[in-house]
Protein backbone atom coordinates (compact mmCIF):
# COMPACT_ATOMS: atom_id res chain seq x y z
CA UNK A 1 0.00 0.00 0.00
CA UNK A 2 2.72 2.48 0.99
CA UNK A 3 4.67 1.53 -2.11
CA UNK A 4 1.69 2.36 -4.32
CA UNK A 5 1.13 5.65 -2.50
CA UNK A 6 4.79 6.58 -2.94
CA UNK A 7 4.83 5.83 -6.68
CA UNK A 8 1.55 7.65 -7.38
CA UNK A 9 2.64 10.68 -5.34
CA UNK A 10 5.84 10.73 -7.36
CA UNK A 11 3.93 10.52 -10.67
CA UNK A 12 1.47 13.25 -9.68
CA UNK A 13 4.29 15.58 -8.58
CA UNK A 14 6.20 14.88 -11.78
CA UNK A 15 3.22 15.65 -14.03
CA UNK A 16 2.36 18.87 -12.18
CA UNK A 17 5.96 20.08 -12.42
CA UNK A 18 6.15 19.18 -16.13
CA UNK A 19 2.85 20.90 -16.96
CA UNK A 20 3.79 24.06 -15.09
CA UNK A 21 7.23 24.05 -16.69
CA UNK A 22 5.81 23.54 -20.18
CA UNK A 23 3.21 26.25 -19.58
CA UNK A 24 5.93 28.66 -18.48
CA UNK A 25 8.15 27.67 -21.40
CA UNK A 26 5.35 28.19 -23.91
CA UNK A 27 4.97 31.83 -22.87
CA UNK A 28 8.57 32.25 -24.07
CA UNK A 29 8.11 30.08 -27.17
CA UNK A 30 5.11 32.15 -28.25
CA UNK A 31 7.07 35.39 -27.94
CA UNK A 32 10.20 34.09 -29.63
CA UNK A 33 8.40 32.23 -32.41
CA UNK A 34 6.31 35.32 -33.17
CA UNK A 35 9.50 37.39 -33.25
CA UNK A 36 11.22 35.00 -35.66
CA UNK A 37 8.18 34.98 -37.96
CA UNK A 38 8.08 38.79 -37.86
CA UNK A 39 11.86 39.22 -38.28
CA UNK A 40 12.20 40.71 -34.79
CA UNK A 41 14.50 39.99 -31.85
CA UNK A 42 11.70 39.22 -29.42
CA UNK A 43 11.75 39.09 -25.64
CA UNK A 44 15.26 39.80 -24.37
CA UNK A 45 14.94 42.39 -21.57
CA UNK A 46 14.26 40.36 -18.42
CA UNK A 47 17.44 39.07 -16.79
CA UNK A 48 19.02 37.82 -13.59
CA UNK A 49 22.12 39.57 -12.28
CA UNK A 50 24.77 37.49 -10.57
CA UNK A 51 25.24 38.77 -6.98
CA UNK A 52 28.05 41.30 -6.50
CA UNK A 53 28.81 41.39 -10.23
CA UNK A 54 27.65 43.22 -13.34
CA UNK A 55 27.03 39.95 -15.20
CA UNK A 56 23.46 39.71 -16.50
CA UNK A 57 21.99 36.34 -17.41
CA UNK A 58 19.59 37.02 -20.29
CA UNK A 59 19.44 33.54 -21.82
CA UNK A 60 17.42 34.48 -24.92
CA UNK A 61 14.61 36.00 -22.84
CA UNK A 62 13.79 32.86 -20.83
CA UNK A 63 13.28 34.92 -17.67
CA UNK A 64 10.32 36.79 -19.14
CA UNK A 65 7.96 34.01 -18.04
CA UNK A 66 9.25 34.30 -14.46
CA UNK A 67 8.83 38.09 -14.64
CA UNK A 68 5.22 37.65 -15.82
CA UNK A 69 4.47 35.30 -12.92
CA UNK A 70 5.97 37.69 -10.36
CA UNK A 71 4.02 40.58 -11.88
CA UNK A 72 0.75 38.66 -11.55
CA UNK A 73 1.52 37.70 -7.96
CA UNK A 74 2.47 41.24 -6.89
CA UNK A 75 -0.29 43.19 -8.64
CA UNK A 76 -3.26 44.47 -6.66
CA UNK A 77 -6.32 42.23 -6.91
CA UNK A 78 -9.12 44.57 -7.99
CA UNK A 79 -12.69 43.31 -7.72
CA UNK A 80 -15.89 44.78 -9.16
CA UNK A 81 -18.24 46.22 -6.55
CA UNK A 82 -21.34 44.18 -7.42
CA UNK A 83 -19.70 40.81 -8.06
CA UNK A 84 -20.62 37.44 -6.56
CA UNK A 85 -17.67 36.83 -4.17
CA UNK A 86 -17.82 33.03 -4.00
CA UNK A 87 -18.38 32.28 -7.70
CA UNK A 88 -16.00 35.06 -8.74
CA UNK A 89 -13.21 33.43 -6.70
CA UNK A 90 -14.01 29.85 -7.72
CA UNK A 91 -14.30 30.48 -11.49
CA UNK A 92 -10.52 30.70 -12.24
CA UNK A 93 -9.97 27.42 -10.38
CA UNK A 94 -12.86 25.72 -12.18
CA UNK A 95 -11.10 26.74 -15.40
CA UNK A 96 -7.58 25.79 -14.25
CA UNK A 97 -7.94 22.54 -12.28
CA UNK A 98 -9.77 20.44 -14.96
CA UNK A 99 -6.97 21.20 -17.41
CA UNK A 100 -4.56 19.52 -14.98
CA UNK A 101 -6.98 16.67 -14.26
CA UNK A 102 -7.21 15.76 -17.95
CA UNK A 103 -3.58 14.68 -17.85
CA UNK A 104 -4.34 12.09 -15.16
CA UNK A 105 -5.45 9.53 -17.78
CA UNK A 106 -2.76 10.23 -20.40
CA UNK A 107 0.04 7.62 -20.44
CA UNK A 108 3.49 9.18 -20.83
CA UNK A 109 5.50 5.96 -20.69
CA UNK A 110 5.28 2.18 -20.46
CA UNK A 111 5.36 0.07 -17.30
CA UNK A 112 7.79 1.03 -14.54
CA UNK A 113 9.26 -1.82 -12.51
CA UNK A 114 11.25 -0.37 -9.56
CA UNK A 115 13.07 -3.67 -8.92
CA UNK A 116 14.24 -3.80 -12.56
CA UNK A 117 15.10 -0.08 -12.47
CA UNK A 118 17.53 -0.68 -9.60
CA UNK A 119 18.65 -4.28 -10.14
CA UNK A 120 21.51 -4.09 -7.63
CA UNK A 121 19.44 -2.76 -4.73
CA UNK A 122 18.12 -5.44 -2.37
CA UNK A 123 16.12 -2.82 -0.42
CA UNK A 124 14.15 -1.78 -3.49
CA UNK A 125 13.62 -5.42 -4.51
CA UNK A 126 12.31 -6.35 -1.06
CA UNK A 127 10.05 -3.30 -0.77
CA UNK A 128 8.48 -3.39 -4.24
CA UNK A 129 8.88 -7.08 -5.11
CA UNK A 130 7.79 -7.81 -8.66
CA UNK A 131 5.28 -4.94 -8.80
CA UNK A 132 5.10 -2.78 -11.91
CA UNK A 133 3.32 0.53 -12.40
CA UNK A 134 2.05 2.14 -15.62
CA UNK A 135 3.43 5.63 -16.16
CA UNK A 136 -0.06 7.04 -15.94
CA UNK A 137 -1.64 8.64 -12.88
CA UNK A 138 -5.06 6.99 -13.29
CA UNK A 139 -4.97 3.75 -15.27
CA UNK A 140 -8.65 3.68 -16.25
CA UNK A 141 -10.21 1.48 -18.92
CA UNK A 142 -12.48 4.36 -19.97
CA UNK A 143 -9.65 6.90 -20.05
CA UNK A 144 -10.82 8.58 -23.24
CA UNK A 145 -14.30 9.17 -21.81
CA UNK A 146 -12.87 10.57 -18.57
CA UNK A 147 -10.66 12.86 -20.64
CA UNK A 148 -13.69 14.45 -22.32
CA UNK A 149 -15.60 14.62 -19.03
CA UNK A 150 -12.86 16.69 -17.38
CA UNK A 151 -12.26 18.74 -20.53
CA UNK A 152 -15.90 19.84 -20.66
CA UNK A 153 -15.68 21.41 -17.19
CA UNK A 154 -13.67 24.36 -18.52
CA UNK A 155 -16.84 25.63 -20.21
CA UNK A 156 -18.44 25.99 -16.78
CA UNK A 157 -15.45 27.98 -15.51
CA UNK A 158 -15.73 30.48 -18.38
CA UNK A 159 -19.47 30.88 -17.93
CA UNK A 160 -19.18 31.35 -14.17
CA UNK A 161 -16.44 33.96 -14.60
CA UNK A 162 -18.53 36.05 -16.98
CA UNK A 163 -21.72 35.81 -14.93
CA UNK A 164 -20.18 36.44 -11.50
CA UNK A 165 -18.35 39.60 -12.64
CA UNK A 166 -21.68 41.45 -13.09
CA UNK A 167 -20.33 43.12 -16.22
CA UNK A 168 -22.14 43.06 -19.55
CA UNK A 169 -18.89 42.68 -21.51
CA UNK A 170 -17.83 39.75 -19.33
CA UNK A 171 -21.25 38.14 -19.74
CA UNK A 172 -21.13 38.56 -23.53
CA UNK A 173 -17.65 37.05 -23.56
CA UNK A 174 -18.90 34.11 -21.46
CA UNK A 175 -21.80 33.50 -23.86
CA UNK A 176 -19.40 33.60 -26.82
CA UNK A 177 -17.03 31.23 -25.03
CA UNK A 178 -19.78 28.79 -24.09
CA UNK A 179 -21.27 28.65 -27.59
CA UNK A 180 -17.84 28.24 -29.21
CA UNK A 181 -16.53 25.59 -26.83
CA UNK A 182 -19.71 23.51 -27.00
CA UNK A 183 -19.74 23.69 -30.82
CA UNK A 184 -16.14 22.65 -31.29
CA UNK A 185 -16.15 20.08 -28.49
CA UNK A 186 -18.77 18.19 -30.48
CA UNK A 187 -16.46 18.17 -33.51
CA UNK A 188 -13.55 17.16 -31.29
CA UNK A 189 -15.41 14.16 -29.89
CA UNK A 190 -16.75 12.93 -33.22
CA UNK A 191 -13.30 13.19 -34.81
CA UNK A 192 -12.00 10.65 -32.28
CA UNK A 193 -14.91 8.20 -32.66
CA UNK A 194 -13.32 6.97 -35.91
CA UNK A 195 -10.20 5.96 -33.96
CA UNK A 196 -12.37 4.15 -31.42
CA UNK A 197 -13.93 2.14 -34.26
CA UNK A 198 -10.48 1.21 -35.58
CA UNK A 199 -8.78 0.37 -32.29
CA UNK A 200 -11.94 -0.99 -30.61
CA UNK A 201 -11.22 0.54 -27.20
CA UNK A 202 -11.34 3.76 -25.17
CA UNK A 203 -8.35 2.69 -23.07
CA UNK A 204 -5.53 5.10 -23.92
CA UNK A 205 -2.77 2.62 -23.03
CA UNK A 206 -4.32 0.01 -25.35
CA UNK A 207 -4.57 2.61 -28.13
CA UNK A 208 -0.87 3.46 -27.75
CA UNK A 209 0.11 -0.23 -27.71
CA UNK A 210 -1.85 -0.89 -30.91
CA UNK A 211 -0.03 2.00 -32.58
CA UNK A 212 3.24 0.16 -31.97
CA UNK A 213 2.34 -2.21 -34.81
CA UNK A 214 3.64 -1.80 -38.37
CA UNK A 215 1.49 -1.44 -41.49
CA UNK A 216 2.66 -3.06 -44.74
CA UNK A 217 6.07 -3.74 -43.24
CA UNK A 218 7.28 -0.13 -43.02
CA UNK A 219 4.56 2.31 -41.90
CA UNK A 220 3.81 2.83 -38.17
CA UNK A 221 0.18 2.11 -37.27
CA UNK A 222 -0.19 5.61 -35.88
CA UNK A 223 -3.59 7.25 -35.85
CA UNK A 224 -2.41 10.01 -38.17
CA UNK A 225 -1.82 7.41 -40.91
CA UNK A 226 -5.04 5.50 -40.25
CA UNK A 227 -7.18 8.62 -39.81
CA UNK A 228 -5.35 11.56 -41.45
CA UNK A 229 -8.54 13.53 -42.06
CA UNK A 230 -9.68 13.02 -38.45
CA UNK A 231 -6.26 14.23 -37.26
CA UNK A 232 -6.71 17.45 -39.24
CA UNK A 233 -10.24 17.95 -37.92
CA UNK A 234 -9.01 17.29 -34.38
CA UNK A 235 -6.29 19.94 -34.63
CA UNK A 236 -8.68 22.56 -35.99
CA UNK A 237 -11.31 21.85 -33.33
CA UNK A 238 -8.67 21.72 -30.58
CA UNK A 239 -7.34 25.13 -31.60
CA UNK A 240 -10.88 26.52 -31.34
CA UNK A 241 -11.49 24.68 -28.05
CA UNK A 242 -8.41 26.34 -26.53
CA UNK A 243 -9.71 29.74 -27.75
CA UNK A 244 -6.62 30.76 -29.64
CA UNK A 245 -6.24 32.71 -32.86
CA UNK A 246 -7.95 32.44 -35.30
CA UNK A 247 -10.66 31.30 -32.84
CA UNK A 248 -10.02 33.68 -29.93
CA UNK A 249 -13.35 35.53 -30.12
CA UNK A 250 -14.24 34.79 -26.46
CA UNK A 251 -11.36 37.13 -25.53
CA UNK A 252 -9.88 39.01 -28.51
CA UNK A 253 -8.33 41.40 -26.01
CA UNK A 254 -7.13 43.81 -28.70
CA UNK A 255 -10.69 44.44 -29.95
CA UNK A 256 -13.18 43.06 -27.39
CA UNK A 257 -11.56 43.97 -24.05
CA UNK A 258 -10.81 40.57 -22.44
CA UNK A 259 -14.02 38.60 -22.73
CA UNK A 260 -15.18 36.57 -19.76
CA UNK A 261 -12.25 37.63 -17.54
CA UNK A 262 -12.53 41.39 -18.20
CA UNK A 263 -13.06 42.09 -14.48
CA UNK A 264 -10.20 39.89 -13.31
CA UNK A 265 -6.74 41.08 -12.35
CA UNK A 266 -3.58 39.91 -10.62
CA UNK A 267 -3.19 36.14 -10.16
CA UNK A 268 -6.84 35.35 -10.87
CA UNK A 269 -6.35 36.62 -14.41
CA UNK A 270 -3.01 34.83 -14.41
CA UNK A 271 -4.78 31.53 -13.73
CA UNK A 272 -7.02 32.04 -16.77
CA UNK A 273 -4.07 32.86 -19.02
CA UNK A 274 -1.84 30.11 -17.61
CA UNK A 275 -4.67 27.59 -18.04
CA UNK A 276 -4.72 28.37 -21.75
CA UNK A 277 -1.01 27.65 -22.13
CA UNK A 278 -1.30 24.40 -20.17
CA UNK A 279 -4.31 23.53 -22.32
CA UNK A 280 -2.01 23.74 -25.37
CA UNK A 281 0.25 21.15 -23.71
CA UNK A 282 -2.72 18.91 -22.88
CA UNK A 283 -4.07 19.13 -26.44
CA UNK A 284 -0.61 18.28 -27.79
CA UNK A 285 -0.41 15.32 -25.37
CA UNK A 286 -3.84 14.02 -26.46
CA UNK A 287 -2.90 14.39 -30.13
CA UNK A 288 0.41 12.60 -29.48
CA UNK A 289 -1.36 9.76 -27.66
CA UNK A 290 -4.10 9.26 -30.25
CA UNK A 291 -2.40 10.09 -33.53
CA UNK A 292 1.41 9.97 -33.09
CA UNK A 293 1.97 6.67 -31.33
CA UNK A 294 2.18 8.13 -27.82
CA UNK A 295 5.40 7.35 -25.98
CA UNK A 296 6.56 4.62 -28.39
CA UNK A 297 8.77 4.64 -31.45
CA UNK A 298 8.28 2.26 -34.41
CA UNK A 299 9.44 -1.29 -33.60
CA UNK A 300 9.71 -0.38 -29.88
CA UNK A 301 8.46 -2.48 -26.95
CA UNK A 302 8.98 -2.54 -23.17
CA UNK A 303 12.08 -4.68 -23.69
CA UNK A 304 13.73 -2.61 -26.43
CA UNK A 305 13.40 -2.78 -30.22
CA UNK A 306 12.30 -5.64 -32.47
CA UNK A 307 13.18 -4.85 -36.08
CA UNK A 308 11.89 -6.58 -39.24
CA UNK A 309 13.50 -9.96 -39.78
CA UNK A 310 13.43 -10.83 -36.08
CA UNK A 311 16.46 -8.68 -35.17
CA UNK A 312 16.17 -7.66 -31.51
CA UNK A 313 17.91 -4.89 -29.60
CA UNK A 314 17.26 -5.38 -25.90
CA UNK A 315 17.78 -2.38 -23.63
CA UNK A 316 18.07 -2.02 -19.86
CA UNK A 317 14.82 -1.13 -18.13
CA UNK A 318 16.01 2.37 -17.23
CA UNK A 319 16.98 3.05 -20.87
CA UNK A 320 13.54 1.96 -22.12
CA UNK A 321 11.73 4.15 -19.57
CA UNK A 322 13.97 7.15 -20.29
CA UNK A 323 13.53 6.72 -24.05
CA UNK A 324 9.74 6.45 -23.81
CA UNK A 325 9.41 9.53 -21.60
CA UNK A 326 11.79 11.54 -23.82
CA UNK A 327 9.95 10.49 -27.00
CA UNK A 328 6.60 11.46 -25.50
CA UNK A 329 7.64 14.95 -24.40
CA UNK A 330 9.53 15.59 -27.64
CA UNK A 331 6.40 14.83 -29.65
CA UNK A 332 4.33 17.01 -27.33
CA UNK A 333 6.76 19.93 -27.71
CA UNK A 334 6.73 19.67 -31.52
CA UNK A 335 2.91 19.70 -31.61
CA UNK A 336 2.90 22.68 -29.23
CA UNK A 337 5.25 24.49 -31.60
CA UNK A 338 2.90 23.80 -34.50
CA UNK A 339 -0.10 25.15 -32.56
CA UNK A 340 1.82 28.31 -31.72
CA UNK A 341 2.81 28.60 -35.38
CA UNK A 342 -0.86 28.58 -36.40
CA UNK A 343 -1.59 31.29 -33.84
CA UNK A 344 0.77 33.69 -35.63
CA UNK A 345 -0.19 32.66 -39.16
CA UNK A 346 -3.95 32.98 -39.63
CA UNK A 347 -6.21 36.06 -39.20
CA UNK A 348 -9.09 36.11 -36.75
CA UNK A 349 -12.55 35.03 -37.96
CA UNK A 350 -15.78 36.94 -37.36
CA UNK A 351 -17.95 35.31 -34.73
CA UNK A 352 -20.70 34.34 -37.17
CA UNK A 353 -18.05 32.80 -39.42
CA UNK A 354 -16.59 30.92 -36.46
CA UNK A 355 -19.91 29.32 -35.49
CA UNK A 356 -20.90 28.58 -39.09
CA UNK A 357 -17.51 27.00 -39.69
CA UNK A 358 -18.17 24.55 -36.84
CA UNK A 359 -21.76 23.60 -37.70
CA UNK A 360 -21.86 23.91 -41.49
CA UNK A 361 -18.36 22.73 -42.44
CA UNK A 362 -16.52 20.83 -39.71
CA UNK A 363 -19.48 18.88 -38.32
CA UNK A 364 -20.65 17.51 -41.73
CA UNK A 365 -17.03 16.64 -42.64
CA UNK A 366 -16.62 14.84 -39.30
CA UNK A 367 -19.81 12.84 -39.85
CA UNK A 368 -18.71 11.92 -43.39
CA UNK A 369 -15.31 10.76 -42.07
CA UNK A 370 -17.05 8.73 -39.36
CA UNK A 371 -19.43 7.12 -41.88
CA UNK A 372 -16.61 6.17 -44.27
CA UNK A 373 -14.55 4.78 -41.38
CA UNK A 374 -17.48 2.68 -40.13
CA UNK A 375 -18.07 1.26 -43.63
CA UNK A 376 -14.39 0.39 -44.11
CA UNK A 377 -14.09 -1.22 -40.65
CA UNK A 378 -17.26 -3.25 -41.25
CA UNK A 379 -16.09 -4.33 -44.71
CA UNK A 380 -12.71 -5.49 -43.37
CA UNK A 381 -14.39 -7.69 -40.77
CA UNK A 382 -16.26 -9.70 -43.41
**Backbone shape:** globular
Adjacency order of strands in the biggest sheet = 7-8-9
> Termini separation (Å)?
47 Å
How many domains, in number, for the residues?
1
Number of helices: 14
- What proportion of the residues is helical, as a percent range? 55-70%
Tally of DSSP β-strands = 9
Biggest sheet, open or closed, and with what strands and sense? 3 strands, antiparallel
Listing every helix as H and every strand as E from the N terminus to the C terminus, the arrangement reads HEEHHEHHEHHHHEEHHHEEEHH
Multimer state:
single chain
Report the average pLDDT across residues: 82
C-alpha Rg (nearest Å): 23 Å
- How large is the share of residues in beta strands? 5-15%
Q: By helix and strand content, what is the structural category?
A: mainly alpha
Low-confidence stretches: none
Model description:
With 382 residues, the protein is mainly alpha-helical. The protein has one domain (2-43, 84-381). It has helices at residues 2-37, 64-74, 85-102, 114-117, 122-128, 143-151, 153-164, 168-199, 204-210, 223-226, 228-241, 266-291, 317-343, 351-381; strands at 48-49, 56-57, 111-112, 133-134, 214-215, 219-220, 300-301, 304-307, 311-314. The strands form four sheets. The chain has a three-stranded antiparallel sheet with strand order 7-8-9, with no helix packed on it. A two-stranded antiparallel sheet has the order 1-2. The chain has a two-stranded antiparallel sheet with strand order 3-4. The protein is globular and about 70 Å long. It starts with a helix and ends with a helix. The mean pLDDT is 82.
Amino acid sequence: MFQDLFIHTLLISYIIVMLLTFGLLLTWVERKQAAIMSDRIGANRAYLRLPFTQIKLIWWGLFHGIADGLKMLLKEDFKPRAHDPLIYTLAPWVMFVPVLLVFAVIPFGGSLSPAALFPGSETVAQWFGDKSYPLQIAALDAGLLVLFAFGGLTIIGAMLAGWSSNNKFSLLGAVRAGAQMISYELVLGLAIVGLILIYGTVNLVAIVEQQSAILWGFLPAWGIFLQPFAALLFLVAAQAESQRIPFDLPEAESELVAGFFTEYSAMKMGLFMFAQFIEIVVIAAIFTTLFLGGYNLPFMSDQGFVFPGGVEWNLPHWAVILTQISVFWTKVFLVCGFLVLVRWTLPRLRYDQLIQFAWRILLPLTLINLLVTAIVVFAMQY
